[in-house]
Amino acid sequence: MSTRFTRFEHRHSEIAGQHIDELIDHDSGLHLCATNHGAELICIRRHTPDAKYQSYLYRDGDLSVPASGWKNHATVMGYYIHRLRNEHSFYEGDEIRGGNHSFIRNKVFARPDVHVGDKAAIVYSLSSDQIERSEYPRKVSFLLEYRLCENMIEVVFHFINEESARPAHVSFGLHPGFSVTSVEQARVLLPAGRYRRHLAPDNFLSGETVEFESTGGPLPAKPFELPGSFLIEPLETAESVIRLADLGSGREVAVDLETAPYFTVWSDLNPFVCVEPCWGLPDHQQQEPFEKKLGIQVIPPGSTLTRSCCFQFS
Length: 314
Known about the structure:
By secondary structure, the protein is mainly beta. It has a single domain, classed as Beta-galactosidase, Chain A, domain 5 (Distorted Sandwich), CATH 2.70.98. Helices cover 0% and strands 49% of the residues. The strands form 4 sheets. Strands 7, 14, 16, 17, 18, 21, 22 and 23 form an 8-stranded antiparallel beta sheet that branches. Strands 10-11-12-13-24-20-19-15 form an 8-stranded antiparallel beta sheet, with no helix packed on it. Strand 19 and strand 20 form a beta hairpin. The protein is globular, with a radius of gyration of 19 Å.
């Protein structure tokens, strides 16, 4: 099913039991596709007038399960991020149980709403009554927007705290794997400034940090180090845009992290590199209470927390 507007087009299809929604910007040639399984982006492409296209996500549009390696495209992370120690935590006395990157990635969402005007958006929603108490014990609903606007993709997170008398605590982010010719030919280019790396051996924070400076060049990481996540906190930088350059193909992805306090760089050494906007960090090896996790975001009673990040492709 397809609906064409003046500039934008929306298409809906069903593939391998998944509902796929696609937005197309006919002015820029930019396409995005998302699935109702985890509200995950599975395809980002730029089409050209000669019917060719350039793909930007790893395994772009491929819904099969690979025999090995990372199996996703752009995981949505929340209501907590990365990992809980021993897959459980205590939130002011209530136990939370869950695996890597929390439960959004495992939810099957309803068909998204579609909005078209000077920009186009598909909006996925998850009501608080669709969340098990063992997954997250507060009444907090979730909206996720994928917007096509001004030759870029904007991802907007909304967390709505329905509790009338107590705050809610969440952490969240996006985990996109951008296709590269090879990890060896990829460069993560940092704005000039000061940064702090949070060390996390075995995927949990040790409490140790290393501060470093960038003059505007590549992240000081060697390819063989990337199976260990680089959890980075910008401290004082000239701008908020991180760039992933693929020397082999000439592709570049610019990630605007203006509202994100952290970002993660990771790869399993297959031909992709993740540059992940993060509003929070994983547990410490000596686990703290959930509400005291490093970087946890606080939503006052009856309020909405909205955060966004932008991606531009060249």
